[in-house]
Predict the structure.
Amino acid sequence: QDSLLNQWNQAGLKMLMFGDETWSRISPVRFLREDPTSSFFVADYTEVDENVTRHLDEELVRDDWDVMILHYLGLDHIGHLEGPYSSLVPKKLEEMGEMIQKIHQRLSSK
């Protein structure tokens, strides 16, 4: 079955995956490094994201990978728990914005 993962794998790209365990369970390829997190603890919207974020500083300075998949679950879990207008949404969106900014700054400086 054709997918981006298969195409990247066939092209010899080295991939990392941090976040939702579904990537590891159904992926036809193996990741260079991975740290899957269960997506079924919907009441958790902090630890699932911290598990992804804790890898960023180390991985962004390494140069042995080509693709990094970061599947943050917290915002989705908040939506399922409290809906899109939850008071938790703005803080979580700010956190995700900070992660995007960090990634952009680190990759731009390479």
